[in-house]
Amino acid sequence: MTERTKLLEEMNDRSREVFRRVVESYLESGEPVGSRTLTRTLSEKVSAATIRNVMQDLEYLGLLDSPHVSAGRIPTHQGLRMFVDSLLEVRDLETEDREKLDATLGPNSGDVGGLLDRVGSALSGVTHGASLVLTPKHEAPIKHIEFVNLGADRALVVLVFADGHVENRVFTPPPGQTPSSMREAANFLNALMGGKTLSELRRDMQREISTRRQEIDDLAAEMIEAGVAVWEDEADTSARLIVRGRANLLAGESETVELDRIRILFDDLERKRDIAEFLELTETGEGVRIFIGSENKLFSLSGSSLVVSPYMNADRKIIGAVGVIGPTRLNYGRIVPIVDYTAQLVGKLIAERR
Predict the structure, then answer these.
(1) What domains appear along the chain, each with residue ranges and CATH number?
(2) Given a cut of 50, is residue 233 above it in pLDDT?
(3) Which contacts (CB < 8 Å, 24+ apart) does range 327-330 have?
(4) Residue 69 pLDDT level (bands cut at 50, 70, 90)
């Protein structure tokens, strides 16, 4: 039993209802909730003074906070976490929302990248937040790899996959590379392939280099590691993140502190910092996960919440993720089924295109 669950069970019915009403009202309006407002909505008829005492107790427990003297209460991050874990009522997906998401598919919707871009735009439009879509890496077996010298500090690595897909990327090679070391690096990798995917090749490559270091020229070894790592590094991962609807985060925000929070979030999204962690957030299992405020490793400075779900291929392997980021007062009950449905939709699409 978690500390939050134990705390909730120790609360009486009146405290639980007051807490739930405060959180629900705050999520709907974004405004502090006062005791007089609650007296009109509680199932039990009690005085405003009694409600104030209950709210003070909840504040003492760290579940509510007073933003201003004599103002109403708002939930703390700890309070939101307990509400989401124990009291949140997730709605059914609304027909209109489903239809808008389904409409992004269209008749044979073209390439996966373009479709995921449209899914991100639709998800942002439906939720009125910023959407994040992490696209899958191409994991077909590799047929051939080649390095092309473009100058003293630029090289091109070309991957040809067994399914005909071709990818190429310009990168900075280790210092001192020669045409000979590039050929040796490519020959080493082509001999090692044997129908492996990129991630399988990278794993085997590191093992082979460590056991055959004496046989491989040092320059070629550095070239091998740099050439394959270009698909695995931060730049590659960030290029796989589609962000749509950032302007939605500005709607209705006027206070300087809120605008500063949004500005920090924009900076994070521009840099796409630590985006590799975005997928890691989802890899503990299926289903939607909610990260509130400082729990969110990606955007902890922004005071935002992230609702995220992985999607899987036909082999039930997690290959990407979709999510919505917004203020901590997101309408979680509505957002959760939307993100869940979008993840299932994308997974089905990927599986059908295999």
Answers:
(1) 3-87 (1.10.10.10), 95-136+241-352 (3.30.450.40), 142-236 (3.30.390.10)
(2) no
(3) 327/30, 327/249, 327/258, 327/303, 328/77, 328/80, 328/292, 328/293, 328/303, 328/304, 329/26, 329/27, 329/30, 330/27, 330/129, 330/305
(4) low
